[in-house]
Design brief:
- The chain has helices spanning 39-43, 94-97, 134-137, 140-152, 168-179, 195-200, 216-220, 237-242, 265-269, 283-295, 313-321; strands spanning 2-5, 14-17, 27-36, 61-69, 81-84, 117-121, 125-127, 161-164, 185-189, 205-208, 227-230, 250-253, 274-276, 304-308, 328-331.
- It is an alpha/beta fold.
- It folds into two domains: 2-142 and 280-331, Alpha-Beta Complex (Quinone Oxidoreductase, Chain A, domain 1), CATH 3.90.180; 154-276, Rossmann fold (3-Layer(aba) Sandwich), CATH 3.40.50.
- Strand 9 (185-189), helix 6 (195-200) and strand 10 (205-208) form a beta-alpha-beta unit.
- The structure holds zinc ion (2 copies).
- One zinc ion (ZN) binds next to helix 4.
Length: 336
């Protein structure tokens, strides 16, 4: 089977031909239907301390169909379509019990979504119904991050929310702010390019934050919001976010900036601002995201700006290191 491999920063990502992995007890084999390219596929292959291990398989926003079932599998069967939590988890260690399966002490990594097939432990496969497309199945992973963000940021019904950035994380925040009953939801971006999709995902308004029109945000949000979500990952955004929240409000960092990003503690203290640094999701966020996709009228599939085959992935990732218009690109490993 073919799968994308990271060869260390500065070296091209390669598509390698490998033997299929053996199938053990409690495991299923998937044929991957779709796998989204994540901002972290760019930033975690860029030569910082956060890089993936050299030689590791890539792709963690995947969905696929069960094509083989190992011994002792109870919950999944042939033909099930599942979203993949990118780590098998034991459910019993301290991290698992705290709802942080990504840090499970014994679970195997389930990377390799940029590949034709993949073996996962059955509890890492979250079945989705026919009403959810394979494209949406592969959006469960990024969008579940938005739910975790607001659980950690303690969003209350009716809270007003400002979301800075309209990439995948910004749109995940928009989606879950709406699902969780937020009040006014405003998205601020550098350009108008993603305003339409931000509104389609549930925002009430979208504004361009620029020197030319410094009052644009105030017109959209006359009083400072209860929560500000930083979803760009750019240096300088954390303090900008803090500067726009109400006194006593919260800032949620969702952009996964891999560089130092200074904040001014006294400034934030004088407003008693809380800052939250969530990562990813718990199994319940995956389940809730699938339920929301199934029940909801907002179709997150609109976020997918492009599909590509496996062979295009290495050049695509290099393109995405620079300024680009790609929003959510999904790899279709069975194509091409
Ligand atoms: Zn991701
Ligand atoms: Zn565990």
């Amino acid at each position: 089977m073919r799968v994308a491999v990271f060869n260390g920063a500065g070296n091209p990502i390669t598509i390698e031909d490998m033997e299929d992995d053996p199938l053990g007890p409690g495991e299923v084999r998937l044929e991957i239907g779709r796998c989204g390219v994540c901002g972290s596929d760019i930033s975690f292959t860029s030569g910082t301390a956060f890089d993936y291990a050299t030689g590791s398989r890539m792709g963690h926003e995947s969905a696929g169909t069960v094509i083989e079932v190992g011994p002792d599998v109870a919950a999944l069967k042939l033909g099930d379509r599942v979203s993949v939590l990118p780590r098998g988890y034991c459910g019993e260690c301290t991290s698992c019990r705290m709802g942080r399966p990504l840090f499970c002490e014994t679970g195997p990594a389930h990377m390799g979504g940029f590949g034709e097939r993949m073996v996962i432990t059955e509890q890492a496969g979250f079945r989705f119904p026919d009403s959810v497309s394979m494209a949406e199945g592969a959006l469960v992973e990024p969008i579940a991050c938005g739910r975790r963000a607001f659980r950690m940021g303690r969003l209350q019904k009716g809270d007003s929310v400002l979301i800075i950035g309209a990439g995948s994380m910004g749109l995940a925040a928009v989606y879950w702010a709406r699902q969780l009953g937020a009040g006014r939801i405003v998205v601020a971006t550098r350009t108008r390019a993603r305003h339409e999709i931000a509104l389609a995902m549930g925002a009430d308004a979208a504004v361009v934050m620029s020197q030319d029109d410094p009052d644009a945000l105030k017109r959209a949000l006359p009083t400072p919001p209860d929560l500000v979500v930083e979803a760009t990952g750019k240096v300088g955004m954390l303090q900008l976010a803090a500067g726009n929240v109400r006194t006593g409000g919260g800032v949620v960092s969702l952009g996964m900036c891999v560089h130092a990003d200074p904040v001014i503690p006294a400034m934030n203290a004088f407003q008693e601002i809380s800052m939250f640094f969530p990562v990813a999701y718990a199994p319940e966020d995956f389940e809730a995201t699938i339920r929301a996709f199934d029940a909801g009228t907002i179709r997150p599939g609109a976020m997918v700006s492009e599909t590509a085959d496996l062979d295009r992935l290495p050049t695509l990732i290099e393109e995405m290191r620079g300024p680009s218009n790609h929003l959510k690109v999904q790899i279709v490993p069975q194509a091409g």
